[in-house]
Design brief:
The complex is a heterodimer of chains A (about 180) and B (about 160). Chain A is an all-alpha fold. Chain A contains eight helices and no strands. The longest helix of chain A has 25 residues. In chain B, a hairpin with a 4-residue loop joins strand 1 and strand 2. Classes of the chains: A mainly alpha (about 180), B mainly alpha (about 160).
């Protein structure tokens, strides 16, 4: 088992633990925080598996969800958000260990600068002209080679519009 | 007609609106030849309608692009894109480009790309317009116990 595989498995175990704690935790605050942990580890996994764009999106979504949920809980119930110094110290130590491991094995985990991990782009670029006869390689990639992504994005917009229409409806509200 | 902005804004947006529409449609139709595509063109179409909404008020914008039509166009675009993907199954795979590829640098090139662009453009344009219009008309009104939400259309 290589170091890379070991790191992946460790992160997955942490992610599973975070998810289980998020379900089992008594207080809502700790449940949300452990859910955020699972999401953050998922983004690190995306980064290690060679999908940096999805990792960035995942980090963004996790932070936004965490802030929104925590602010809702903070408003609804006057939960105590202050923490003691011991937990901060433990968190710092864990982060330091992770950072140190990362620094030690940096070269094995990533390719050298200038050599992208994803080498499919050249094939997309050449076959968009030769096979697909489309001059705009961006459209050819978005709508043909990676059509699944675009279908997902279309679904996201559709769901967002349905959400807006449902949340801001005037008929059939219970507070009439 | 005191709704909307001043007369200058109304006249200018009346002149500019057709050009925005034409540019958006051309972005959608030539998305696979020139920079652009369904998403960018759809957002541009939405921008034209939002200009109308800002200049003339929501009633006029909904007269030109009724809410019911926008809602059904949203669904039609999503289902159309999905059905283009499903039609690929006839050739053997999901999202297979089953049409003849045509010529390079021509509108009949790229197989299904043109139709996918049109569907995405319809979808994005109508969906963003509904979302922006609905959000812009959201109002909170004071009632006995706190605030209540309602749409500004109902104001008399």
């Amino acid at each position: 088992m290589t170091v890379n595989m070991l790191i992946l498995v460790t992160l997955m175990v942490f992610m599973a633990a975070g998810s289980v704690i998020a379900i089992m935790a008594k207080s809502l605050t700790s449940s949300i925080v452990s859910m955020g942990t699972a999401g953050l580890i998922l983004s690190i996994l995306f980064l290690l598996l060679g999908a940096p764009d999805i990792a960035i999106v995942q980090v963004f979504v996790e932070i936004v969800a965490l802030v929104v949920l925590l602010s809702i809980i903070h408003r609804e119930s006057s939960a105590d958000m202050s923490s003691s110094g011991i937990y901060a110290g433990i968190t710092l130590v864990i982060f330091a260990v992770f950072l140190f491991t990362f620094m030690l094995h940096f070269k094995e985990m990533f390719r050298p600068f200038g050599e992208p991990a994803i080498t499919m782009g050249a094939g997309y670029l050449s076959s968009s002209v030769t096979h697909l006869k489309a001059a705009n390689a961006v459209t050819a990639t978005v709508l043909d080679f990676r059509g699944y992504d675009t279908l997902g994005e279309a679904t996201v917009i559709f769901t967002a519009v349905i959400g807006v229409l449902v949340l801001l409806r005037t008929r059939g509200r219970s507070d009439e | 007609m005191n709704k909307g902005m001043s007369e200058i804004v109304k006249s200018i947006s009346k002149i500019v609106f057709p050009f925005i529409m034409v540019f958006g449609i051309s972005l959608i139709l030539y998305g696979h030849v020139t920079p652009g595509g369904g998403f960018a063109g759809g957002v541009l179409l939405t921008g034209g309608f939002v200009l109308l909404l800002l200049a003339f008020g929501a009633e006029h914008a909904f007269k030109i692009f009724p809410r019911k039509i926008a809602k059904s166009l949203d669904s039609i675009g999503a289902l159309g894109f999905l059905s283009i993907a499903l039609l690929g199954l006839l050739g053997g795979a999901f999202f297979l480009n089953f049409l003849p590829k045509g010529r390079l640098f021509h509108i009949w090139g790229g197989g299904t790309l043109l139709f996918s662009n049109i569907m995405i453009g319809i979808k994005v344009g109508s969906a963003l317009f509904i979302a922006i219009a609905t959000l812009s008309m959201a109002r909170l009104v004071h009632i006995k116990k706190g605030l209540k939400y309602r749409q500004s259309e109902e104001e008399k």
